[in-house]
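F.,

This is the one I mentioned.
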């Protein structure tokens, strides 16, 4: 495991200088089989991270820029009449890829945002009553602008809950930005496939086999229970959220080269998995940093 993952992390870190933890969390999200939401300012490397992941895992990549006039059919595809054959045929949209970059997702209408719900939850899309399976693995990386920026529509809580993690890349430290200005950043086009898609599927299956003890499960349930107490937050953690938290903790433990999950693994992924669910996607309105509050509250229970 280590001899496969370590070079992959090193390769991605070579194009995203000074972003080691966000990169590790993004790989964790992919190994957990989830979808990733990145909220940050323009120019900090959101698109670069998405494409670097796709290249490093040898996955087919599509980028869709979400705009106010984007329609659901522009994503999922549509049925066209083939005059030569005298019948309708299905023309797949860009969602039929292994990595879909939904760029500035909250600039599209709520109707178009919702077109991704079935794809993210079930790995398929329905067009005119017919279901079409998506390629496997299927990984959505969505970027969104802050809600204080014009022309944005907040993601509904039902869609926020479909994202396994939410990350913010932030600015690089001064040392890393100096390396960037000095031309020490690796060229994105030079990245090669280090772990093929078939092996990624095997790693995702291995994540599900990582052992989680009763102690770890009880700790996770304590966190969920505290979030559901009246007044603890804007939105309590759902059963889907608790499943996501366990999956990501298992994936993190795999990156740590262990066959079992620890409480520390849960704590490492807690903020990325739960923050956007707890604040309803509006940290500037409801107050951020609920995750440390939950951890402190649960520590007080134990």
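My design for it:
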């Amino acid at each position: 495991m280590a001899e496969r993952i370590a070079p992959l992390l090193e390769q991605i870190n070579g194009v995203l200088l000074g972003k080691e933890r966000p990169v590790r969390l993004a790989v964790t999200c992919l190994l957990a089989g989830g979808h990733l939401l990145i909220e940050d300012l323009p120019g900090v490397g959101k698109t670069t991270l998405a494409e670097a992941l796709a290249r490093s895992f040898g996955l087919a990549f599509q980028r869709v820029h979400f705009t106010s006039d984007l329609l659901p059919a522009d994503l999922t595809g549509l049925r066209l009449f083939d005059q030569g054959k005298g019948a309708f045929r299905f023309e797949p949209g860009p969602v039929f890829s292994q990595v879909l970059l939904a760029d500035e997702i909250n600039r599209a209408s709520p109707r178009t945002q919702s077109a991704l719900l079935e794809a993210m939850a079930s790995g398929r899309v329905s067009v005119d009553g017919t279901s079409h399976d998506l390629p496997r693995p299927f990984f959505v990386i969505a970027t969104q602008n802050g809600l204080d920026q014009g022309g944005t529509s907040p993601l509904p809580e039902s869609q926020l809950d479909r994202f396994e993690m939410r990350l913010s890349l932030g600015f690089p430290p001064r040392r890393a930005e100096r390396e960037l200005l000095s031309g020490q950043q690796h060229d994105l086009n030079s990245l090669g496939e280090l772990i093929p898609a078939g092996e990624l599927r095997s790693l995702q299956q291995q994540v599900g086999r990582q052992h989680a003890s009763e102690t770890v499960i009880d700790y996770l349930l304590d966190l969920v229970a505290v979030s559901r107490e009246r007044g603890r937050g804007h939105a309590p953690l759902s059963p889907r959220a608790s499943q996501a938290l366990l999956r990501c903790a298992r994936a993190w433990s795999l990156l740590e080269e262990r066959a079992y999950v620890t409480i520390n693994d849960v704590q490492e992924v807690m903020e990325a998995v739960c923050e956007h669910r707890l604040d309803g996607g509006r940290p500037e309105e409801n107050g951020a940093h609920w995750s440390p509050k939950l951890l402190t509250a649960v520590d007080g229970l134990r």
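The first helix runs from residue 2 to 15.

Talk soon.
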